[in-house]
Every structure is written in C-alpha cells, then in structure tokens.
Amino acid sequence: LALFHLGEAQSMMAEHQEAVECYEKALRASQLPAVVTAVILQNLGGALIKLKRHDEALAKLRRALDVDPGLLTVHLLVASALFGLRKFDKAEKEILAYIARAEQDPKKAKLMLRHEPDIPVAMVLLAKCRLAQGDTAKGEETLKDVLRIAPSSADARILLGRIAFQGLRFTDAATHYEALLKSSPAESLFWFELAKTYVAAGADVKAIAALEAGLKASPDNPELLRCLGILKIKQKDFDGALGIYQKALAVDPKDQE
Q1: Is the pLDDT of residue 61 over 50?
Q2: Dist CA 213 CA 195 (whole Å)
Q3: Which of 43, 149, 172, 195 could hold 210 in an S-S bridge, CB 3.0 to 4.6 Å?
Q4: Residue 111 has pLDDT above 90, yes or no
C-alpha cells in the first residue's frame, strides 16, 4: 500500500514514469484485496495515458474492469486511451455509457485524486471525439452544455474559442478568451490566443495591448515576445521591435526567427 500511495503522490506531481514504476511494483509486491488491485490498475492506466502509451494503458484498464466491473471511472479512462489511439467512435460510445451511469451514481463518477464529479471532463472528451470526426456543430453544442453545468471549465472555453476562430466568429472567440483571463490572468496561452484573434479581426492595437498584458504576467515568454515584435514591425515601430527581439534572444539565443 505504501507503493500505491507513493504512486499517487508522483502522479499529482506529474512524475508519471515514476508513478508507473511504483504501481507496477505495488502489483508485484504482495497479494492485495481485489478492490485495491483494481484501483492500482486504474491509476496505472491513467499514468500510462499521460505518457501516451495508450495500448498499454488500455490493457491495464481492461484488467481493472475484469477485477472490479463496478469501478465506474475506469470507463472514462478507457475512453481517453481509445481517443489517444484515434478510435473516436469507440471512445464516444464509452463516454456516453460512462455519463449515463455516472448520472445515476455520481459518487462513483470521480477520478482518484479529484474531488469534483467528472461528468464535465467526460463531456469535454466527448466533444473532442465529435470534433475529431468532423462534426463541428455537435462538438460545439456539447461544449456549450459543459459550460451550463461547469461555467469555469477552461478546457471547454478554449475549445469553443478555437472553434469560433476557425469559423471567423472573432467576437465570439475573443469573448471566450476574455472569460478565461478573468479567472486565469497569468496564463500566457490565453493572452496569445486573444491577441491572435484580435489580429485576425484587424484590431492590431488591441492585439498589442493583449500581448503586453500577457508579458506582464509572463515576461520571458518567447511566443508572446515574437508576436509582439511582428506587430511592432507592422506598425513601423522598428525601435520597439528591435528591443522586443533583443529581449527574445536573451531568453532564447537559439531562436532563429
């Protein structure tokens, strides 16, 4: 059990390879109760998914279900593994079955190390499956459903922003990124996506302001610096662009751009 708990701690710290090794040692170490064995296999499958070892993960998760068929969350991890293997139709069926059962018994619909129900997580994955299969309308509607039950879902918002951007609905895209930044003002990715949206909409001044705000939160972000330099050149602010690029090179001397 000590190895099991160590594996959980390493998973929390994103040390997934170390977690895999701990879980495998725990399974070999001694005879464990079936319920504990199933949970270790579940967590092992989750760690393997993080390492993109989806075939191995699927095998471990199937074993977990053999040991304890009532372990509901394994079905969501199975769907994640299938998604990683690009078996989107099978993943979608697994997610729909998980959601139906999770709504009946929400206490079982929780991943290890998490405290909130995982139906929103499942629905985001369902949306990704639908988008991967080319059904943008259904994927977008699924993501909107996520926001109805989990308004703070960053995963749903960023996907909705990208769908709106690809559909040339720049105002909608900006609205999603602005909502993300209200809750996560230090996240440089959101500032970059917002700036990119403003550029596409022809609002370069707003884009520059977004990039500068992002650099206040993340001063050494090379992507933000590079984009800001491009916009400074576009506005013929060559001195400003030079200063930005010099800073970018100080951050990453090998940056050829």
Answers
A1: yes
A2: 10
A3: 195
A4: no
